[in-house]
């Protein structure tokens, strides 16, 4: 009886038609992945207000959703999205992590000394530096922000108005909390955690 059932399933399987996407060309399948229907599903699954201005940050312990503030820091948001779409942040280290303060990343050299060479004029705004805030790192010059940014572990009101806040973690902050802390000078991390990948949610 078991053998007959198995044969029946095989015969039925042979009658099934190939998936309709089987014969599609590569460029056609790419179009399907960013269709309006797909975008709506993505927006719903990540529960973001605007998928074009939201990022998916993949860490070793889980996914983090960052919603950006294009109205408050338009140039920073535009530049971050440009770098994300170029794959710039994939694999970069959280080189400076201070417990109770913040985790910093975005240096291509992994030590806090580098960037892309494209400096951004400060866009200080009224968004507070609180737990989950994503803000631009900079040197002494207010207009020296480039590619490095930090995520606050806790409220840091003394930073308000001094650094450009361009986003906020709206999901997955518990995974940010698990980023390896630094024990070296000024929060330097030995064998630091890395960004697995960063994507604009509208592109997924």
Summarize the structure.
The chain is of the alpha+beta class. It is built from 5 helices and 8 strands. It has one domain: Cyclophilin-like (Cyclophilin), CATH 2.40.100.
What would you note in describing this structure?
The chain is α+β, with helices and mostly antiparallel strands and 204 residues long. It has a single domain, classed as Cyclophilin-like (Cyclophilin, Beta Barrel). It has helices at residues 2-15, 26-33, 36-46, 74-85, 173-176, and strands spanning 54-59, 62-68, 96-98, 102-105, 133-136, 149-152, 165-171, 197-200. Strands 3-4-6-5-7-2-1-8 form an 8-stranded antiparallel β-sheet. It is globular and about 50 Å long.
Main features:
single chain, eight-stranded antiparallel sheet, globular, Cyclophilin, about 200 residues, alpha+beta
Rg is 22 Å
Strand order of the largest sheet: 3-4-6-5-7-2-1-8
The CATH superfamily is identified as Cyclophilin-like
Biggest sheet statistics: 8 strands, antiparallel
Per CATH, the architecture is Beta Barrel
Count of separate DSSP helical elements: 5
Contiguous runs where pLDDT drops below 50 for at least 5 residues: 1-33
Q: Write the element-wise H/E pattern from the N-terminal end onward.
A: HHHEEHEEEEEHE
Mean pLDDT: 86
- Helix share bin: 10-25%
């Amino acid at each position: 009886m078991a053998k007959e059932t198995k044969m029946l399933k095989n015969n039925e399987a042979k009658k099934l038609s190939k998936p309709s996407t089987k014969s599609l060309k590569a460029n056609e399948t790419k179009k399907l992945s960013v269709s309006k229907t797909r975008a709506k599903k993505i927006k719903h699954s990540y529960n973001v207000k605007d998928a074009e201005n939201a990022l998916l940050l993949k860490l070793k312990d889980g996914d983090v959703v960052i919603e950006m503030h294009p109205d408050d820091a338009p140039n920073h948001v535009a530049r971050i999205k440009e770098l994300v779409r170029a794959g710039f942040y994939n694999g970069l280290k959280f080189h400076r992590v201070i417990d109770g303060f913040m985790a910093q990343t975005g240096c291509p050299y992994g030590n806090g000394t580098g960037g892309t060479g494209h400096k951004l004029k400060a866009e200080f705004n009224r968004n507070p530096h609180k737990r989950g805030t994503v803000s631009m790192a900079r040197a002494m010059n207010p207009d020296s922000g480039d590619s490095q940014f930090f995520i606050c572990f806790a409220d840091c009101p003394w930073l308000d108005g001094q650094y450009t806040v361009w986003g906020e973690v709206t999901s997955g902050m518990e995974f940010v909390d698990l980023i390896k802390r630094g024990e070296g000078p000024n929060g330097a991390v030995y064998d630091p955690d890395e960004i697995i990948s960063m994507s604009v949610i509208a592109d997924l």
